[in-house]
Amino acid sequence: MLRPNNPEDQRRRDALRYAICKAWRKQGHRVWSDADIEAAIDAAIAKQDQRNAANNQSNAVQADLIDHGCHAGRTRAAAASSARRSRHRRRDAVECAVAGAGARGMTRHEAADAVGCPVHAVTAAVLELLKAGRLIETSRKRATPSGKLAAVLVSPMAKESQRA
Question: What's the superkingdom here (predicted)?
Fold first, then answer.
């Protein structure tokens, strides 16, 4: 009999013991020894372990169906190059849109609508403008299309008394 090393192994052995005894009863066996049960459990565990090892081996040698090589690398490089070219235009467009809103300012969602881009496309530009001091995030909040509150951005050129 193999001794279980942890509670999970003990639960596994108990489940097998129950299944083996149930199967033997169904077959008409009424008397068996503990040694017979333990030998059957050990054999069942060995068979399960062999099956698991075979499954793990077959999974390890399976060929990758998706090309993650040179094609994906070229696609990422082209996307990054395109984003680099449009980054400055988008940043300038966001700055002009927020400056055009005056003291009322704009949320990121409103700026994205004004520029004609999705919100995720203007957030990097807004962050860059905030770090450069070309935009200011006020304490005011306005609802976004989803109903959540978002900070209002203003240009530093807006009058100080109207920003807060």
Answer: Bacteria
